[in-house]
Structure formats: structure tokens, C-alpha cells
Specification:
387 residues, alpha/beta, Rossmann fold, 7-stranded parallel sheet, 6-stranded parallel sheet, 13 helices, 13 strands, 17% strand, globular
Length: 387
């Protein structure tokens, strides 16, 4: 029987990685949107999520402490997380636990449920974000555990059709996966009002600004970003802004020095307020390699700022970027092709403006926060109705 009051207040736990990356950003924004819709939200992480800047009476944060025991070569975070979930459920009577990233979060959720026994009345939703399936889940060390965690979840969502299909190919077509795309905060990420003044903080007068933001993992192909920019700046005055940090940073810095681009490349590191940079840039580069982006949240945030994107035609990116309408898609590794597209776009102010306006419209119509949050909310009530 359907609930009489489908918008009643829920007590929801959200488990995510708090670091610079798409899954943590999406989880945080979703939690804040749920609070705005009247729900009580408890974040359970080892650190405060980077995007968690707002404070509400219905917002709670619970730290996961890991014991640095000498016998542990690697601290068992999954056990500490499961124990913390048990504590939070008991104290706050959570009805829904939404975990982002399959391993170890879905496993910890299952373990917490087993620890609680008859007291475990909450439902679990696992949202797949990409590398938890295409990288971690594909490794033989985690394949069985990943499948187990997904299969034992009450509900499973994926951020793109591509990721849902990739998961079913790897773990079985019988897995029920609902596609709910990422959303973007259209108030925080929006076109700049005083664009020229803001651009002068980043570049010299007349320079076009290319930007890339990521966690600098190998799949992001940040070296390709530098190579693309190297070609572009031979044709027109330009500057490259790099946001983020990660394992490939040293290689990227070495390449910048090798190509003698140090005076044209700005490294900002993993800044939290990317919305204060993106609106003043001209073009976002996302040349990720195979298997590609499962969604491409950084690209969507740029589009919301009215900044078109040139990206690789891999993974779920084509579900975000309409080739030729609000950006351009090329084959992964096609540095020459991406550079040619970037040069052509940046050389035509009218074309750049048209693409930027179309990018904003796509963000508004396809990925609005209210609509996406409502889809998750509907899933929560649907699962609770099965009790």
C-alpha cells in the first residue's frame, strides 16, 4: 500500500568519499538537496566532504575513526565504517542508508545490517559512480566483493546508461540498476556577470583561457590536456588553468617544463571554490582515456557556467555533451583533433557564445537538482513501501 504522505521526513544516512572527486561532490550535493526538501541527513565519512559548506539543523556529520594498530599494514576502514554505521543507526534510527561507491561502502552497509540483526530496519541504496566498476570492480581481488555488495543492496543506481550497461555486462544482466544522472547546482555554477573583470584575474588581456579539473589520475590523460594547449597557443594567445591534484601531477609538471609552457600554465591545486574560476574560462578540456568518464561531472559544472567542453567520445560523456551543439567529442588520444576543434572555437567569438549558451541550457533542462533529487526521493519511498 502506498504511503499516505509520500513527502514525509526521512532519516537518511549518506556514506561517501570526502575527497576531490565526482562521487563525493554528487553525494554532498544530494544530501544538501534532501535537507532542503525537509529530510534529516547524516553524513558518515572519515573527513568532512569538501563541498559540505552549508549548515542546517537537519544536517549531521559522523566521523569514521580508524585505529592505527601496529599489526595492521593497512587500516581496515571497511570495519570501522560498518561499526560507525551501526552506532548512527542505533542513535538516530536511520530509515535509509545511501552509499556512494560500491567498494567498500556497500560491503560495510551489508556488514552493519548483519551486526544489527533484527534492529536493522533501514534500506540500502548503492550508487555506482564509475571506477568502482570499471577499475576496482574489474580487478580480480575485488570482483566477487563488488558483485556481492551490489547484489545485497535494496536498490542500485548508476549515474549514466553507459555505467549501468557496463555493470550488467561485468556482473550479470539480471542486476536491476536504475539510471539517475548527476545534477549540478545551477545557482553556484552559472555564467559570470562581470566576466571580463574576472578573466583579468586569471590571464592577460586578450588571452583565451582553457581549463581542466580532475583528480589527476592516469585515465584523465592530463598530459593530453597540456599537449592540446601546446598546439592551441601556437595559433592564438592563451592560458591553461589546471584545477586539482593527484598521482599524475609530477608527470604533468615535467611535461609543462619540457614544452616550455611554465609562464602560460597556472596550477591552482584542489581548490574547493571552482565556481569562482570556471565562469571566467573559455573552454573546458576533458580528454579522458578508455573506459572514459562514467558521467563527467566537471564537464557539466563547466557547462552550467556557460563554458563549452571538448572531450573524448568515451564512457558516459556523450550523454552529457551533444557533439556540435554544446561542445565537441573526439576519439580518446586524438590530441590533434581536439586541438583543432579548440582553436576553431576560440577563434570565433560568435561560435563560442553560441556553444556556451547551449551548454547552460543543457545543464538547466537535463540535470536540474530538484528533478534529480526527486528521483532519488521517489526511489527511497518505493523501497520503504516494500517493507
Amino acid at each position: 500500500m502506498a504511503r499516505a504522505h509520500p513527502r514525509r521526513k526521512l532519516r537518511i544516512g549518506i556514506v561517501c568519499y570526502p575527497t576531490f572527486g565526482g562521487s563525493g561532490v554528487v553525494a554532498t550535493e544530494l544530501g544538501l538537496n534532501l535537507i532542503r526538501r525537509g529530510h534529516e541527513v547524516h553524513f558518515i565519512c572519515y573527513a568532512v566532504p569538501l563541498r559540505l559548506r552549508e549548515y542546517h539543523k537537519n544536517l549531521y556529520y559522523h566521523v569514521v575513526d580508524v585505529l592505527p594498530y601496529p599489526l595492521f599494514k593497512f587500516a581496515p576502514y571497511d570495519l570501522a565504517l560498518a561499526s560507525t554505521i551501526v552506532e548512527v543507526v542505533r542513535k538516530h534510527r536511520l530509515e535509509m542508508l545511501h552509499v556512494h561507491y560500491a567498494v567498500p561502502h556497500s560491503i560495510s552497509a551489508y556488514l552493519a545490517r548483519e551486526m544489527l540483526g533484527a534492529q536493522a530496519t533501514f534500506k540500502t541504496v548503492t550508487t555506482l559512480h564509475g571506477t568502482d566498476i570499471t577499475l576496482v570492480g574489474a580487478d580480480k581481488s575485488y570482483r566477487v566483493a563488488t558483485h556481492f555488495g551490489i547484489a545485497r543492496s535494496d536498490g542500485v543506481t548508476a549515474v549514466s546508461r553507459y555505467l549501468a550497461q557496463a555493470t550488467q555486462r561485468r556482473f550479470g544482466a539480471d542486476l536491476a540498476i536504475r539510471v539517475i544522472p548527476n545534477c549540478v547546482n545551477l545557482t553556484r555554477f552559472r555564467p559570470a556577470r562581470r566576466r571580463l573583470a574576472g578573466k583579468r584575474r586569471l590571464a592577460q588581456r586578450g588571452e583565451k583561457i582553457l581549463v581542466h579539473a580532475s583528480n589527476f589520475r592516469a585515465v584523465k590523460r592530463v598530459a593530453d590536456v597540456v599537449k592540446i594547449f601546446h598546439r592551441v597557443q601556437h595559433t592564438l594567445p592563451a592560458r591553461l588553468v589546471l584545477l586539482g591534484d593527484g598521482p599524475e601531477m609530477s608527470h604533468v609538471v615535467a611535461l609543462v617544463d619540457k614544452l616550455r609552457l611554465r609562464d602560460r600554465v597556472t596550477f591552482f591545486g584542489p581548490i574547493e571554490d571552482v565556481e569562482n574560476v570556471l565562469p571566467y574560462t573559455d573552454l573546458f578540456l576533458l580528454p579522458s582515456g578508455k573506459p572514459g568518464e562514467s558521467f563527467g561531472l566537471a564537464a557539466l559544472e563547466s557547462m552550467a557556467c556557460g563554458v563549452p567542453v571538448i572531450a573524448s567520445r568515451e564512457g558516459g560523456t556523450p550523454e552529457v555533451i551533444d557533439d556540435g551543439e554544446n561542445g565537441y567529442l573526439c576519439a580518446a588520444g586524438d590530441v590533434a583533433g581536439m586541438a583543432a576543434q579548440a582553436t576553431a572555437v576560440l577563434s570565433s567569438p560568435a561560435r563560442l557564445l553560441r556553444l556556451g549558451r547551449a551548454a547552460r541550457r543543457k545543464a538547466e533542462t537535463a540535470f536540474p537538482p530538484e528533478g534529480i533529487t526527486a528521483q532519488y526521493e521517489a526511489l527511497y519511498f518505493e523501497l520503504l513501501d516494500r517493507s
